[in-house]
Amino acid sequence: MNDDLVIVVVAGLVATACGLLGPFLVLRRIALLSDAVSHAVLPGIVAVWLVGQTRAPLPVIAGAAAFAVLCVLAIDALRASGLVASDAAIALVFPALFSLGVLGVTHFADGIHLDLDSTIYGEIAFTPFDTVTLGGVEVARAAVVLAVVVLANLALIALLWKELKATTFDPEFSATVRLRPRLLSRLLLVAVAVTAVAAFEAVGAILVVTMLIVPAATAYLLTDRLVVMVGLTVGIGWIGAVAGHRIALGLDSSIAGAMGLVCAACFVLALVGSPRYGPAARAMRHRTRAVDTAGAGPRPG
Amino acid sequence: MDRLSSLLGLPYTDTVVVVGAIVLGVTSGVLGAFAVLRRRSLVGDAIAHSTLPGVCVAFLVAGVKDVPGLLLGAAVAGLVAALLMVGIERAGRIRPDAAIGVVLSGFFSLGVVLLTHIASTDDADQAGLERYLFGQAAGLLERDVAVMAALGAAALLVVGVGRRALTTTLFDPAYAGSIGLPVRALEALMTGLLVVAVVIGVRLVGAILMVAMLVIPTVTARQLVDRFTRVLPLAGVVGAAVGATGALVATRAELPTGPVVVLAGFAVAVVALLLAPGRGVAWQAGRLAARRRRVCEDALLSDPGAPDRGRRDRRTRAALRRRGLLAPDGALTAAGHAARSDLAERRALWSAWLAHGASVTLPDAREPDPADLRGSLGDDAVSQLKALAGGDSGSGDHGRARAPEAR
After folding, report:
1. How many A-B residue pairs are in contact by the CB < 8 A criterion?
2. How is A117-176 classified by DSSP, letter by letter?
3. Between A78, A99, A257, which is nearest B116 by CB?
4. Which strand (E) or helix (H) includes residue B325?
5. Taking the domains of chain A in order of start, what are their residue ranges?
6. Does domain B2-211 have CATH number 1.10.3470.10?
7. B181 — alpha (psi -120 to 50), left (phi > 0) or beta?
8. Banded model confidence at residue B224, pLDDT cuts 50, 70, 90
9. Using CA atoms, how far apart are residues A245 and A252, in angstroms rounded to an integer?
């Protein structure tokens, strides 16, 4: 397969996996929890490397998921103590876990295949060279792993669509009809963690966070319907992947960074030009309203 | 600095790092309080990430890793990011968390692109620019620390001069506006101070971990004292202590400074959250357990003949027996009967307070304590209550509706 195509497909799969989860995070106002979780999985990856000397996807994902759950539980516990606001709880927990990971990397795993920079920036340019043979065809390993994650995320939101929707928009109501909002929220964050880890090697932490938050926030500016929002989010992610790849080739710069920039540019466009919520649209509505009231003549009373 | 290094018995370079960590701890501790108490801690995270493109641009413009220049670039980028966050939020639809996330990832992506661009230019001086992400204590110069200290001192001076206005805006923006304080400008000032703290610290602990240095001191200080005027200096002290400890451990063990400082701070914050006198989790749990015990004991005293309902019940009986209120056969002793009638009186008084409390005249504002109404309100109020309850009993209507004149 063509190397460039592999890179774009891998990035697109990341965009899809993240795009399926991102809207729920943005709507639940826990977008930053995804940032925290994707940083907090680092010690999990390191621990798996230290214990098992392996970077095979399954154990790494299990270790990372364990730390993601730990992170969420710790944040929950801090918040529940009533002593710390939720933003400060997030800001306390994830740097601590990330520090553990950094110390593990620099102290125990120095010089081996666990490179800190690549977990942050990712080296998507190398994904075409790391291949596995599947049914006689050579495919990029990252693409296989990410495809599995996309399917898992798709299954999660397809099977729990109604439940996720209800708990996202009205947690109190869903609690009264026994939809277990906390459990669903945990499940969502575990899915975020698994996605983050699977995507780490390929695209790095920063693109994962970007793909989870920015396309979803962009789509949120453009529509009011959840289904449309999920679709738009995945679409915007793909635009970022394709255009970002082009730009990175042109500028000879980080591919993941360029993809993130394209997503951010999409957000700015939507913020300024959204037909529904942009300043232009709002000014227009304002004017029509002004004309309406003017046309209605002086108010009685 | 030389004298300090011989005083501490540390090599010169380590002394510079430790002093730098103390400067960082004091400034981020004091200035971070404004972010934490406004529930905007993660704005600090976004600002820290956003300094990356600023540093890259400053390097591209200046061509050298000149510290004041890089700090200026970082500060400008941080300010722009902070303003963008406010702007996106004001635009309406996007909530603060998503605004923070978008700005954070947008700026960081830009930074990564610029970083790789610089790396591809083969400039020998660019090596190590990326260390900026995780912080790099090694190679910190005395001059850098002097710049950090000057910046920090200026920011602290601003806080000292404007502390009344800042405090008012922090806790009650609406009131601050009503007495003519420029609320928007003061909020912008707080964000600006946050940028200063981030810029000072990001060199040492790195962009990703910086937010912890803003949050840890305030969370810890808030556990220990209640007044904002005391939280501020205490946060500075905590920050300095954390910075010094972390930097010392890191230089001794030859570990990266940032993560060690953050972990030391995290440990301090967790200990404070658990054990802080009065407010800590352990104290709260102790109070709750005492209250539970008391409820169980009261229930048993008022109905000692109730059947055994499990372990907690047996433990309560044992406690009452130890205090001599319960005879070994399970009946109340003489002291137990006294305690029981005392309890009944207390309960009757509380019901009377609920029914007639509004018509009791108190000499000053007093907080009624359900467990000890006599102690908390005084004998006079209790005799008033008894008279009110006595006059009301049997009439069959609620005294509160009629509100008789105070006698």
Report:
1. 190
2. HHHHH--GGGGGGSEEEETTEEEEHHHHHHHHHHHHHHHHHHHTHHHHHHHHH-HHHHHH
3. A257
4. none
5. 3-213
6. yes
7. beta
8. very high
9. 10
Question: Residue B41: which of A35, A81, A88 has the nearest Cβ?
Answer: A88
Residue B101: list chain A partners with CB under 8 A.
Answer: 31-32, 34-35, 209, 212-214, 217
A206–B101 C-beta distance less than 8 A: no
C-alpha separations of A236 from A13, A119, A215, A257, A269 in Å: 12, 24, 6, 16, 12
Instruction: Find out whether B130 and A64 touch, Cβ atoms under 8 Å.
Output: no
Q: What would the pLDDT profile of A166-203 be if each residue is shown by its tens digit?
A: 999 988 888 898 888 888 888 888 888 888 888 876 67
User: Which of A87, A115, A123 has the highest number of chain B CBs within 10 A, making it the mutation to test binding with B?
Assistant: A87
Mind listing the pLDDT tens digit for each residue in B312-352? 888 888 888 888 888 887 778 888 888 888 888 888 888 88
Q: Which of B320, B331, B323 is nearest to B298 (CA)?
A: B320
For residue A52, the Cα-to-chain-centroid distance in whole angstroms is 28
Residue located via tokens 């070994």:
B328
Whether B7 and chain A come into contact, CB under 8 Å, resolves to no
Partner A contacted by B395 (CB < 8 A) = no
Chain A residues lying within 8 Å of B220, measured CB to CB: none
The amino acid at A236: I
Euclidean distance between CA atoms A209 and A34, whole angstroms: 7
Inter-chain contact A31–B266, Cβ cutoff 8 Å?
Answer: no
Domain with CATH 1.10.3470.10 in chain B: 2-211
